[in-house]
Structure prediction request, 227 residues.
Amino acid sequence: MELWHDFLTIFIALFVITDPLGNVGIFLSITDGDSLAVRRQQARKGAIYVFLLLFVFFVGGSFIMRFFGITLDGIRIAGGIVVAGVGLGLMHPKAETKHTGEEREESVEKEDVSFTPLALPLIAGPGALAVVIAASAKVDGFHWGPYAAISLAVLATAALNWICLREAPVLQSWMGKNGMNAVTRIMGFLLVCIAVQMIIVGSHGVLIDWGLAAEPISGAAKGNFPF
Prediction:
């Protein structure tokens, strides 16, 4: 049951932060003029890159933290700030915070947009990377169960992004711009909530280390919060 909880929590966090529905319009924009076959090829390659990026940062997360001397609470607080910024940006989709006009113009001119800007930073951006690094640090030692659960969550996230991008024209015509903006705003709000929780857990851990707090907060600080 705990492994299912880890999978579900990480998957929901990554699903919200990668915002596959919100990226549909941007994907169609940067592949404007390409055939359906080319778009689907770009979507497939982009999803593979997303999985590889998130998986590598998840597996190497603990090493990265040890190398730079970063604590889990530091990752939680910094990651929470980054995730909150992404969430606030999603709540205002008209602000074009995820992809500027200059970036879009440069992307349209590229023949292959699957790695940049599609996989990085559009889908597997700093917020998603912060989540998998924090999840990696939370796994104490090598335990195949948590690693498998979180790896499957990363795989499921990449697969869902692939499906949404592959069927981007259908989704855009079905939901319309207003529908996608509404979903994006909801995801942005959920993302801000996740970010606040990350900051709360990280800040509480710092206060415990400083001797300013003794009792762990319920739920998350007891180990139920996988990042």
Q: What stands out?
A: The chain is about 75% helix and 0% strand. The mean pLDDT is 84. Residues 2-222 form one domain. The radius of gyration is 18 Å.
